[in-house]
Amino acid sequence: MPRHKILWVIALLVSTIFLLPNLSLSAQERRTALVIGNGSYKSAPLRNPVNDAEDMAKTLRKLGFTVIHKQNAIQREMEALIRKFGKQLRKGGVGLFYYAGHGFQVNGINYIIPLDAEIREETDVKYEAVDARRVLDAMYNAGNDLNIVILDACRDNPLARGFRSGSSGLARMDAPKGTIVAYSTSPGKLAFDGKGRNSPYTAALVDYMDDPGLTIEQVFKKCRRRIDRATNGKQIPWESTSLTGDFYFSTKGKDNRFSEEQAKLERERREFEQAKAEFERQRKKSEKQEVYVANLSQKPEYSQPSSSSVREIFPWIDIVNNDMWGTLSAEKKSKVFRGYMSELAQTPEWQELNGDQKFKVTQGILMEGGLGKLSVKTFPSRSTVRILNIRPKFSQGMVLLAGSYHVEVSKTDYKTKKMWVKLGSGESKQLEIRLEQLHASIQPTPTYIPPSSTSNVLKKDGIYVAYDNGIVKDTKTGLEWKTGPDENTNWNEANSWVQSLNLDGGSWRMPTMNELIGLYKKGMGDRNMTPLLKTTGWWVWSGETKGYSARDFSFHNGYRYWDPHYDKINYRAFAVRSRNDAGRADQLQASVQNNTPVIHPTSTSNVIKRDGIYVAYANGIVKDTARSLEWIAGPDRNTDWYEAKAWVQSLNLDGGGWRMPTTDELKGLYKKDLGSHNLTSLLLNTTSEYLWVWSGETKGSSAAIPAAWHFFFYNGYGGWDYRSASASRRAFAVRSRRGG
Q: Residue 314: what pLDDT?
């Protein structure tokens, strides 16, 4: 193949990789869709879902989606398709899930109904149906750029009308970051199946999705107007979104500058694919490729797994020798490398290499491009890592130009560490940085330690003592344990059980991972723990959560896992309390009875900044000198109420005594036009455009829809919301103080 044509292909590859990402989710983005239509139910069949799914799949293929399409799926098939869909999303790009058929809510949880579901009463639903959150979990775990969920699933089901919860339609689901969830009607309402070929909602969608130049929000808005008029206001489609950029289903044929640019890029993409295919056919005949292989094999840093496999590798050496390479910034070189490796990883030759061979080939490619890879392992985990002398945000395995980098690692309650790191060409460097914990300058206030349970002792097993009320005490750590029902239990059920437990004075909570690890003793009993804790399960839930997952501990092998909240087979609930926990609870109870607040000493950590009545300390505490309150902001991530509570309970900073705030205390923080979110900037620890903060006030239980009160700092209003809601929600902790 002529040299000039090879360089033209490479130049187009480079331009394609670093120009296209600058547009809003362009047509070049990888697009993957899962489309399911269920209509042939034994009871309450539906006429249109199969047609709806067929027409939606056809439309999505026209719009560049790779579509997985299934009609009349049973439960096992639906779950397998969702897993397959999630794996494909890990390649990146845009993911879309569409479902048409029966769907309803039970206790605030949405379920989509397989064809083989046998639902005779409300309790059958969670075993026979598919939890809609399973789709969100697959998308969350894939970590792709943007996701779309479309549920045309609120069609009338005679069975659901008899459920004790009395809820029709679907419940609202908060869209995780980078996701839009669209419903054919508003929460709790029913949608029409339609008298024609399609439901009104899907008919409108397939019409408007193909309109060029419409953002996704505009498509749904046009659908809403059309269906509102067609049904005389009886059906109003609804969306929940956390998108930050623009997405276009179609941009073809629109006479404006953006569409022209999109069309041009699409033509270039097709030309590139054609040129690449031609190159693939010709490269085996290229004598220069043989020279390239021979040259690489002479380099000691590069390992040639086999001559035949290396001959098939796209010529990276031609990319870095191209004049364009020298003009690229470090960030764009990194993008070119990632795009190249993505292409390479899809070749059969690459997939035949073992791990060691892949590593050595990657090292050679990095070296030729003057690049290196940097990873940072931190102690404690989840510390924040920044590279101070470059603009891009750090990510593990980050590809950088060879050179020196100023690395900063920080975490609340720990001393920040900074260091310069030299990264060589072709080097894959992993740093291990351990932070030193900050200690409060005052000793924690001694707390009352109550006596252990005074119930009759039934049995002893080394350091463990079992009482006749079911409590098992660890005399070494001072922890007291109670096992939950010996039945399959998901995380939400475990959390509800622990919250409802008032045995022997209460103060029970879900265990931390370290506390569960402390129970594990290889070979002890039949579950590698004291037999006084009676259970037939292998996994026990902890209180640690992120997104739609929670951490659990396996007493089978001593390993820790992150698993979806809805998993329950062989999972169990344990409750734990420490004698200090109980002491705090007794102290708080006494303070309520005496109408006197529990007072804690003022933080004596160094003052770093003041803002009117607020004072910020080096340990992260912010003091309100007018109201005698001390505050600390929780992690800057979407946080549901259960996660907020668990974080506050685990907070032992500066002597402890932290709790969730009351509504009045949150109202006291609100000051219109103060800072960017109507509260002091000393306390603000969020990148979210909007800010809700959870209070400790709740209503409902596992038998009803559990709700908690939160405060909206955008307008100063509060309200009840599902405890499972997390979008733009944050956790704050507060305590009363003395002195200062």
A: 46
By DSSP bridging, strand 574-578 and strand 479-483 are: antiparallel
Interaxial angle between packed helices 75-89 and 133-142, expressed in degrees from 0 to 180 and rounded to the nearest 10: 20
pLDDT tens per residue across span 165-187: 445 667 777 777 889 999 988 77
For residue 709, how far is the Cα from the chain centroid?
23
Q: What whole-number distance in Å separates Cα of residue 48 and Cα of residue 727? A: 34
DSSP H or E segment with residue 338: helix 330-345
CATH fold label, 28-241: Rossmann fold (3.40.50)
Average pLDDT over residues 581-585: 40
pLDDT tens per residue, range 87-113: 999 888 999 999 999 888 888 788 999
Q: Which fold has domain 599-738?
A: Mannose-Binding Protein A; Chain A (3.10.100)
Adjacent-strand bridge partners of 698: 708
CB 111 within 8 A of CB 122: no
Please enumerate in sequence order all residues whose Cβ is within 8 A of that of 674, keeping only pairs 6 or more positions apart, or say none.
680, 681
What is the longest distance spanned by two Cα atoms in the chain? Answer: 91
Q: For 467-525, write each residue's pLDDT tens digit.
A: 988 999 998 888 999 999 999 888 888 988 888 888 888 888 999 988 899 899 988 88
The CATH class of the 457-581 domain is: alpha beta
CB 40 within 8 Å of CB 51: no
Distance between CA atoms of residues 538 and 336, nearest Å: 46
The residue extents of the domains of the chain are 3-12+256-368, 28-241, 371-434, 457-581, 599-738
Q: Alpha helix (H) ranges present in 452-553?
A: 491-500, 513-519
Greater confidence (201 vs 273) lies with 201
Rg (CA), the chain: 29
DSSP secondary structure string, 558-599?
A: --EEEEETT--TTEE-EEEEEHHHHHHHHHHHHHHHTT----
Q: Which of 717, 648, 706 is nearest to 510 (CA)?
A: 648
- Alpha carbons 521 and 524: distance in angstroms, whole number: 6
Strands 130-131 and 94-100: unpaired
Angle at which helices 355-368 and 330-345 cross, to 10°: 150
Token pair recorded at residue 535: 């259970």
Three-state SS at 60: helix
The three-state secondary structure class of 195 is coil
**Spatial distance between the Cα atoms of 64 and 59, rounded to a whole number of angstroms:** 9
- Continuous segment of H or E residues that includes residue 240: strand 238-241
156: left (phi over 0), alpha (psi -120 to 50) or beta: beta
Instruction: Tell me whether domains 457-581 and 599-738 share a fold.
Output: yes
**Taking a C-beta distance cutoff of 8 angstroms, is the pair 165, 106 a contact?**
yes
- The token pair at 632 is 């600390």
What Cα–Cα distance (Å) separates residue 391 from each residue in 385, 388, 705?
13, 8, 45
Helix axes 49-62, 200-209, angle to 10 degrees: 10
CB under 8 Å to 508, separation ≥6 — which residues?
A: 482, 498, 501, 575, 576, 577
Q: For the CA atoms of 115, 120, 126, 132, what is the dihedral angle to 10 degrees? A: 40
Nearest residue to 681 via CA among 590, 616, 732, 625? 616
Q: Tell me, rounded to whole angstroms, the distance of Cα 410 from its chain centroid.
A: 22
- 371-379 and 428-434 strand pairing: parallel
Residues contacting residue 726 through CB under 8 Å, at least 6 positions apart: 174, 176, 547, 638, 639, 640, 643
Token pair of 290, please? Answer: 């043989």
Q: In 91-215, which ranges are continuous DSSP H helix?
A: 125-128, 133-142, 200-209
pTM of the model: 0.38
